[in-house]
Amino acid sequence: MTSNDNQATKIVKGIKNSNPIQRNSIESLLNRSIKFRKSRHVDQKLELFKQKFVPVNETTGVVFASTGSSYSTAEEDSIASKIDEHGFESPSKMLYSPDKLNFSWLSILPIGPGLKDLGQLSSLNAVLQVITYTPVLANYFLQRRHSANCTMQEYCFACAVEEHVRTALNGTTYALQPRVFVGKLKQIKNGSTKDAYDVWKYFMNQIQSSLLAEKGSKDELIQQTTALCQTFGGYIQNAFECLSCNKMENKYDFFMDLSLDLLQCSSLERCMTKYFKEQAIATMECPNCQREVELKGKKSVYRSPRTLAIQLRRFNTNSGVKINKDIKFESSLDLSRVITNSEKDHIKSKYDLYAIIAHTGESLFNGHYVAYVKGPNSIWYCMDNEVVQQVSVNRLLSEKAYMLFYTIPPEPVKREKRLPVTNTIKDIPVEGLKEEEPKEPTVQEEEELVTFKEEDNEEEEKQVEYERLKAALEEASKKEKVENQSAIVVSHNERMKSKRDKLEALIEKESVVSKSLEVKSVLLSKHTDSQFQDDINTWDEDIGTSVEDQRKSVLKQIKSKRKKVDAYDLEYDRGKVKKVKKKQDDKFHKPNMFQITADKKLNKKKGK
Predict the structure, then answer these.
(1) What is the tally of helices (H) and strands (E) in the chain?
(2) From start to end of 375-478, where are the E strands?
(3) Which InterPro entries match (predicted)?
(4) Can you tell me the distance from the alpha carbon of 63 to that of 57, in angstroms, rounded to the nearest whole number?
(5) Which of 18, 20, 141, 291 is deepest in the core (most CB within 10 A)?
(6) DSSP string for 213-249
(7) Radius of gyration for the alpha carbons in the chain, expressed in angstroms and rounded
(8) Where is average pLDDT lowest: 226-230, 266-270, 560-564, 593-597?
(9) Beta carbons of 474 and 486 less than 8 angstroms apart
């Protein structure tokens, strides 16, 4: 008999086994340590009770039983501190610290090249240009923060994006071909490659999966702390209220972008206000009523993202027809209206525009995408596939945007200038120096410290100069271009009458304003009989006729008569002429002279 059969017979007969397998025995249950943690649901009555009474002996954490518990009060305090008074739970750890991210350009780089359209994929080119000129992502990829720690043996999407960004910002002048991403777009399941928003979501999901492969976690809250989620991620609070007991319950949703409706809206702010005025409806169990009820809640931003991506829903989900209406947007955005009241003083709400994606066409399947990005030099550029051209802010704000990208402006760095270090050794008397001769190395160390501080001062001055130049460039880019109002401009599509009127006005203006007549009169008034073609003052005020005649005779000898221009002079004055090879005459397609004479003779005979 096998061992399994022996064990089965012992269990049937009731014979005790020497090593019984009892997972839920009394001893195991009693000796098991029980770990307590703070509830995620906030008890409003308890909170009011705490505000009303002050405890006599302040205690931190949870009081445990006297049984041997391995769960310390410090660990309990750390878990309790991760859930705030509004029920928002913070992750236990971060995969990437937000302090390592730089949300402003570290250096002024030249604008990159355009992208070739490989199979009517202007949506892909627009999304790639926005990712390239997102300052925080550009700094992250330029510093190789991902590829230096990437452990994927096969294809890595984040590494491919990093290589593209580095190539684009490396100063290349020729248009790039994003062949690496064209084949990957076929993997889009829920969406179309014709929609730039679907391509954007696909890129975000693929980069997020690559970052999680580097440092993964099964906890959903920890997964929302990658470098990408720290950039575009935020939280929306849904404050639900039970209609029967009026008890509040907060739920939090993580978001990477906002998709706004355009109906009955004329501006971006109205679209945002309408989105957050819509009541969130959910069916859940009320902890106070102890039954499942329908709750209605109000939405608000509890944690604002550092970089905000917004989609304006311009396409019909069924037919793909475009809503071709103007939505007003500004170069700055303030979210203070839609932020949770308790968090308005703690989080930033002002954003600056740094990129948009515009769509031209009448439908989703018949159109073209163009990206407008703000370069590292604070100048706006239009990225239309291979074409890259500078544009003004007025033209940017007149576009019919499909996606908008805002970022929180970095705070200006205030640096205090250090006072120059003075050498205190000069005030010491000579006798004191003689007695302290062995302490010469300390003097050298102080001199070295002084030199290091002088170098720090130079670096600070360079940094201040760089910030001043950057501020001047931003101010110059915001100024409107001033056109000459007095200039007479003739368009090619004007009528002939308006062109003639403008020509007469131009002639009249030239006769009044132009200085050509004055210059001509000055040139004609000059003496031609002088040696230097100009009036020259003489030493003597009164000159006799004999001296004047003698001067004229000398000038005639000096200024010889002009020679007649010959063929060589004409050739030299004409300059280099391109020689065109004369083609030989085609002798076969010319009329035959013998045939012509024969025809003439024949016609004469017929005439007789």
Answers:
(1) 20, 12
(2) 380-384, 387-390, 401-407
(3) Papain-like_cys_pep_sf, Peptidase_C19, Peptidase_C19_UCH, USP, USP_CS
(4) 13
(5) 141
(6) HHS--S-HHHHTTSHHHHHH-EEEEEEEE-TTT--EE
(7) 42
(8) 560-564
(9) no
Residue-wise pLDDT tens digits, 368-406:
999 999 999 999 999 998 999 999 999 999 999 999 999
Element (H, E) at 163: helix 157-168
Say how far apart CA 364 and CA 367 lie, in whole Å.
6
Tens of pLDDT, residue by residue over 121-179, are: 899 999 999 999 999 999 999 998 888 888 887 889 999 999 999 999 988 888 999 98
DSSP per-residue codes, 77-94? HHHHHTB-TTSPBPPSS-
Nearest CA to 150 among 86, 216, 101, 90? 216
Backbone torsion region of residue 468, taken as left when φ is above 0, otherwise alpha when ψ lies between -120 and 50, otherwise beta = alpha
More confident residue, 205 or 545: 205
Both tokens assigned to 606 = 């017929």
Hey, is 491 helix, strand or coil?
coil
Residue 447 CB coordination number (10 Å)? 13
- Compute the distance between CA of residue 25 and CA of residue 37 in angstroms, rounded to an integer: 25
- Residue 95 CA to residue 224 CA, distance in Å, equals 8
For residue 176, the Cα-to-chain-centroid distance in whole angstroms is 19
* 583 pLDDT above the threshold of 50: yes
Q: How far apart are CA 301 and CA 344, in angstroms?
A: 10
Spatial separation of the C-alpha atoms in residues 335 and 92, rounded to whole Å = 28
Collapsed DSSP state (helix, strand, coil) of residue 98:
helix
Task: Compute φ and ψ for 176, nearest 5 degrees.
Answer: -90, 155
What helix, strand, coil percent values describe the chain, rounded to 5? Answer: 40, 15, 45
* CB contact at 8 A, 297 and 240: yes
Element (H, E) at 165: helix 157-168
| DSSP per-residue string spanning 336-393 | TTTB-GGGTTTS--EEEEEEEEEEEEEETTEEEEEEEEE-TTS-EEEEETTEEEE--H
Calpha distance 170→168 (Å, rounded): 6
Q: What's 486's DSSP letter?
A: T
Nearest C-alpha neighbor of 153 from the set 98, 214, 225, 203: 214
Q: Cα–Cα distance between 257 and 203 in angstroms, integer?
A: 13
Q: Which of 412, 376, 374 is nearest to 393 (CA)?
A: 374
What is the C-alpha to C-alpha distance for residues 335 and 348, in angstroms, rounded to an integer? Answer: 9
Specify the DSSP class assigned to residue 566: -
Is the distance from CB of 249 to CB of 283 less than 8 angstroms?
A: no
**Degrees, nearest 5: CA angle 417-422-427:** 160
Tally the residues of the chain. 608
* pLDDT tier, 260 (very low <50, low <70, confident <90, very high otherwise): very high
The tokens 């992208």 sit on which residue?
Answer: 115
CA 330, CA 326: separation in Å to the nearest integer? 13
DSSP string, 105-118: -SS-------B--S
The label of the residue with tokens 């010491």 reads 428
Residue keyed to tokens 């249950």: 29
| pLDDT of the residue at 441 | 47
Do 112 and 376 meet the contact criterion of CB atoms below 8 Å apart? no
Q: What angle, 0 to 180 degrees and rounded to 10, lies between the N-to-C axes of helices 122-132 and 135-142?
A: 80
